[in-house]
């Protein structure tokens, strides 16, 4: 007579253990999707697609969090958060390499990996007991609705994208697992299958993609004939509040900088605690919403978005630094130094009795306060991931100096796409659009107006001066 090798205790909990095993796999898939889909953010060019990927990343972080919470109520989920290699390598493969077509990569995530996740959730509902496992059932039903919506939302961006070869490549890798839960018939990989990640490991692109939109090094400066955001105008009491409102919407739209360089951190921190990635995903989604504030409000005020150049310097500089240094500059320098000037800007905009603008700026400020809290919480742990043993304060000071050095090398390299008479600047457009009187606009004309290259070098001349400029340029003005 055959005998079972399982213990009586494990036999008693077999039904729970099996569903816990599936939940654990779903957690790992959602977690690894978050870590890798974020590599699309700075590689796709359409702002609306960037925003959408940020939203989906945040929602996937929520799925993983709730699955983990439910899993820990059940026997056998485990206290660890690592992703098994068989799952991870498929997502890393989907990332492609720096020269890959970003829309083809997007198609890989959304026509292969995400539909397989949807199928896995549906399988879970099929095999679990809907009364005994009711808490899991309700979560999975919500996640199915989210996954179906994600596929609908992404579809317009994939129309006409030729991705059949890449689709087949990823499908074969996934078939080797038999689906994310192993619920399908496994089709072993052919002997000649080549994992691209072994041939061309992924590296971040040297610059980010802004698609059809004009670009430049910086949208912040001191010359109203050159720059759309004239730094002294933001705090000068003579500046018309309508001018400040327009400038702050440009500022908010340019938080696309923060979206692009923050998104680079996920893929480079595979051993990070899940809660770190969860809060990074929230941070990313917040910055995406802030950028949308400007992207959606500027046209309402008469601005043609094709006249607004996108600044690339911060990505180009920060990508030369490791992830913990990028995160330190963002949270401990750019955001932590933003609040005094943001308070002044908010007070000036309130003069206009524009409830929508007041609301957007209030939520922006609230979110930025949370981001600084995230920095205090997670920067030490991120430092530990990179074996950084210096005290946090010392590390931040050293990182500020390194940023200055990198900026002198990698900053100011992106020329204006548009001549100044065709692009949004303080003098030729913002004053007119705001309806302000150019003769009493805000400030005396500057006594000097150096060209962009000279201006960048002058601002870089002092350490603190440059850091303050960088903070402003990153939409967070240092005092």
Question: What does this protein structure show overall?
Answer:
- By secondary structure, this protein is mostly helical.
- The chain has 2 domains: 15-199, Ferritin, core subunit, four-helix bundle (Ferritin, Up-down Bundle), CATH 1.20.1260.10; 215-473.
- The chain contains 20 helices and 4 strands.
- It has helices at 8-12, 14-37, 47-71, 85-95, 102-127, 134-158, 164-175, 196-199, 231-235, 241-253, 256-263, 274-300, 313-318, 323-335, 339-350, 355-385, 392-410, 426-434, 452-459, 463-473, and strands at residues 215-216, 220-221, 229-230, 310-311.
- The strands form 2 sheets. The protein has a two-stranded parallel sheet with strand order 1-4. The chain has a two-stranded parallel sheet with strand order 2-3.
- Helix 2 (14-37) packs antiparallel against helix 3.
- The model is unreliable at 442-479 (pLDDT under 50).
- Separation of termini? 81 Å
- Tell me the overall shape: elongated
How many helical stretches? 20
- Quote the beta fraction: under 5%
């Amino acid at each position: 007579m055959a005998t079972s090798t399982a213990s009586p205790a494990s036999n008693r909990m077999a039904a729970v253990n099996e569903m816990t095993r599936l939940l654990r796999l779903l957690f790992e898939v959602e977690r690894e999707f978050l870590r890798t889909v974020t590599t699309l953010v700075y590689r796709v060019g359409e702002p609306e697609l960037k925003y959408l990927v940020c939203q989906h990343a945040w929602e996937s972080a929520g799925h993983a969090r709730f699955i983990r919470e439910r899993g820990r109520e059940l026997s056998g989920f485990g206290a660890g958060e690592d992703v098994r290699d068989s799952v991870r390598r498929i997502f890393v493969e989907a990332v492609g390499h720096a020269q890959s077509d970003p829309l083809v990569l997007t198609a890989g995530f959304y026509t292969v990996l995400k539909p397989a996740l949807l199928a896995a959730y549906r399988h879970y509902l099929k095999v679990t007991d809907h009364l005994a496992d009711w808490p899991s059932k309700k979560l999975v039903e919500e996640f199915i609705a989210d996954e179906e919506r994600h596929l609908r939302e992404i579809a317009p961006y994939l129309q006409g994208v030729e991705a059949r070869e890449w689709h087949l490549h990823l499908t074969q890798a996934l078939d080797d697992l038999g689906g994310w839960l192993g619920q399908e018939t496994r089709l072993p990989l052919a002997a000649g299958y080549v994992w691209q990640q072994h041939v061309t490991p992924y590296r971040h692109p040297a610059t980010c993609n802004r698609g059809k939109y004009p670009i430049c090094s910086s949208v912040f400066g001191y010359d109203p004939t050159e720059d759309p955001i004239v730094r002294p105008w933001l705090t000068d009491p003579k500046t018309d509040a309508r001018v400040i409102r327009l400038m702050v919407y440009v500022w908010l739209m340019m938080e696309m900088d923060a979206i692009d360089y923050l998104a680079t951190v996920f893929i480079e921190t595979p051993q990070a605690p899940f809660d770190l990635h969860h809060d990074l995903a929230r941070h990313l989604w917040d910055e995406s919403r802030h950028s949308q504030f400007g992207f959606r409000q500027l046209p309402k005020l008469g601005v043609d978005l094709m006249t607004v150049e996108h600044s690339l310097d911060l990505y180009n500089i920060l990508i030369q630094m490791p992830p913990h240094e990028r995160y330190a500059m963002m949270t401990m320098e750019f955001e932590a130094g933003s609040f005094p000037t943001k308070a002044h800007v908010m007070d000036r905009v309130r003069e206009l009795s524009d409830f929508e603008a007041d609301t957007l700026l209030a939520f922006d400020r609230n979110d930025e306060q949370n981001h600084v809290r995230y920095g205090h919480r997670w920067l030490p742990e991120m430092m530990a991931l990179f074996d950084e043993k210096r005290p946090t304060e010392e590390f931040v000071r050293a990182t500020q100096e390194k940023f200055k050095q990198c900026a002198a090398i990698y900053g100011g390299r992106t020329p204006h796409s548009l001549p100044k008479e065709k692009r949004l600047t303080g003098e030729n457009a913002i004053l007119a659009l705001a309806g302000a009187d150019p003769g009493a606009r805000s400030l005396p004309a500057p006594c000097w107006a150096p060209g962009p290259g000279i201006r960048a070098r002058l601002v870089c001349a002092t350490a603190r001066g440059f850091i303050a400029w960088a903070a402003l340029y990153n939409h967070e003005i240092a005092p």
